[in-house]
Amino acid sequence: MKTVFIKVYGKVQGVFFRQTTIAKAKELSLTGYALNARDGTVEIMAQGMPENIDQLIAWCHHGPERARVNKVDVQVVGEKISFRSFELRYP
Question: Running DSSP on this structure, what letter comes out for residue 29?
């Protein structure tokens, strides 16, 4: 099990980035959340099998069709966190 915090920069709000992230995460059997941050980025906390996490990270580099991703930061989370599903959150 691996947990990561992902921050996606660019034109990522108002283009269904969170909703498609949730669909992709569920497809990959990941848990966690996605939210629109106040600074214009999308923040994602994802937990699951390492190979599935890697697939989500790769997807984040392009996102949905209308998104324009400039940068993706990924940090591995060492603390014990447990999620039951993948959900939409608000700041």
Answer: T
- What is the pairing mode between strands 31-36 and 42-48? antiparallel
- For the chain, what is the domain count? 1
Residue 67: inside a domain, yes or no?
yes
52 catalytic, yes or no? no
Q: Model's pTM, two decimal places?
A: 0.95
Whether 70 is catalytic: no
Annotated active-site residue in 18, 70, 84, 89: 18
Which domain CATH number covers 17?
Answer: 3.30.70.100
Q: Could you read off the pLDDT of 39-75 as tens digits, one per residue?
A: 999 999 999 999 999 999 999 999 999 999 999 999 9
